[in-house]
């Protein structure tokens, strides 16, 4: 007789919404260069979601945040890992110019309507509509 398995907790992710001139910054990883999602990543052990946000953006984009503000918590399936995800999304601001580094392949600015840009389902299905509702995307 098998014992029931306790489901693993959802993958915790901290993600940034950086909007400039009505366009959202999205990034792709070298592991999946055709799929774009919000910049950010998983907190290290003992690290808060906000600390992870600042660290990941410094590592991946070379930017320092002037401020961050919690925007939403998104529950979805992680596009790359295919597991349940709890993504804490923060609206962020920086005067730095983002440049892809670390495991990133590219970055793009989008209004969420580009048919040639493949966005992760959580971004296209939940984040973009939320930003449109709040008047942040053009």
From TrEMBL:
Signal peptide: none annotated. Pfam families: NUDIX. It catalyses: 8-oxo-dGTP + H2O = 8-oxo-dGMP + diphosphate + H(+). Its cofactor is Mg(2+). Its EC number is 3.6.1.55. Transmembrane segments: none annotated. It comes from the Bacteria. Keywords: DNA damage, DNA repair, DNA replication, Hydrolase, Magnesium, Metal-binding, Mutator protein. PROSITE patterns: NUDIX, NUDIX_BOX. Gene3D superfamilies: Nucleoside Triphosphate Pyrophosphohydrolase. Residues 8-133 form the Nudix hydrolase domain. Belongs to the Nudix hydrolase family. This is 8-oxo-dGTP diphosphatase.
């Amino acid at each position: 007789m098998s014992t029931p398995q306790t489901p693993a907790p959802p993958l915790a992710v901290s993600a940034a919404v950086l909007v400039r001139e009505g366009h959202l910054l999205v990034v792709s990883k070298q592991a999946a260069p055709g799929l774009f999602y919000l910049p950010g990543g998983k907190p290290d052990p003992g690290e808060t979601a906000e600390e992870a946000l600042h660290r990941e953006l410094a590592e991946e984009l070379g930017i320092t945040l002037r401020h961050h503000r919690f925007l939403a918590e998104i529950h979805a399936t992680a596009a790359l890992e295919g597991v349940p995800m709890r993504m804490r999304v923060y609206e962020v601001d920086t005067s730095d110019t983002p440049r892809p580094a670390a495991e990133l392949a590219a970055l793009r600015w989008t209004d969420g309507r580009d048919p040639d840009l493949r966005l992760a389902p959580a971004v296209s299905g939940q984040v973009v509509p939320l930003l449109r509702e709040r008047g942040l995307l053009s």
